[in-house]
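Q: Hi! First time doing this. I have a protein sequence and I read that you can turn it into a structure. Is that right? Here it is:
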Amino acid sequence: MVATKGILSGGVQGAQAAERSLQHDELLGFTRARRTLGKVNRDHDGPAHLGLTVQVHLDVGPYDATTNHRTGRTDEPARSFPTLPVTSGAMSLQGFSALVTGAASGMGEAAARRLAAEGAHVVIVDRDAAKGEAVAKELGGTAAEADVVDEASMRAAFDAAKEVAPLRACIHCAGVGWVERTINRDGSPHMLDTFRKILDINLIGTFNAVRFAASAMNGNEADDNGQRGVIVNTASVAAFDGQIGQLAYSASKGGVVSMTLTAARDLSAAGIRVCTIAPGLVDTPLLGMLPDDARAELGRSVLFPKRLGTADEFASLAMEIVRNPYLNGEVIRLDAGIRMPPK
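A: Yes, that's right. Below is the predicted 3D structure, encoded as structure tokens:
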């Protein structure tokens, strides 16, 4: 048996969660252990640390092959391994810049407001220059007119973020929807140009944001967790539950989902995390164009709570991904349990 002594970061509850024992088969010779509990290592102004000491006690007697048992007992003194300090704490945005695409309205705007509230200088990226300027002025940020599929304007937007302060977070929300069946009712095929356009904006646009964000973050000084930045992309439940007519949209968002873990692996050596949020039915300006009764019917189709999601709920999850240094390479559905029907 192996006894451990340690403190998990997390303040008051950390000490209560720390005591653990790991049992092994007696054939390995581990038959007893002593449990001890350490103390939280916390600087007055710093984050909590994980102090882990492993003590191994061996009660091993000579092995008798004829009986397949150990005989007698030989006690060895406990062996203590060094304490391993592991820094824990939320990623700080104070003194850093953050960039949000599609930030002039909806989920992007809500995310930009959350980032600004955390102390980041937010760069508002949107094709709508007037709305982008208005949001940036209100938040004390910077507006950058850009198209996510255009290399020059996106490069300029990220350069603007770096000029203000080191880029720590990028939340990519820009995207479009489209409805068209593989063959239309008259038997004509899905238009190839529109399929390409949806993939360009939703998938290639995401890749464009990821590559520029990663390049900008790579030169940052790492924090206590070795992090240089975090990228949050936006997919959709349509990546998993694509409905009739969503072929192009589902393909584009499925590509974003598939890109998540690979991008996180690519960027792990640079200390850059990548996650994706897959929202369900969120009450954005696009859904706001529907009649009230149609929106209410959509809300009733959700498992629980039976309503549409809000842009601020998306922003809240995006901020948790930014803060939490152990979230990486993951796609998180934000959908209140909905599984979309065929139509």
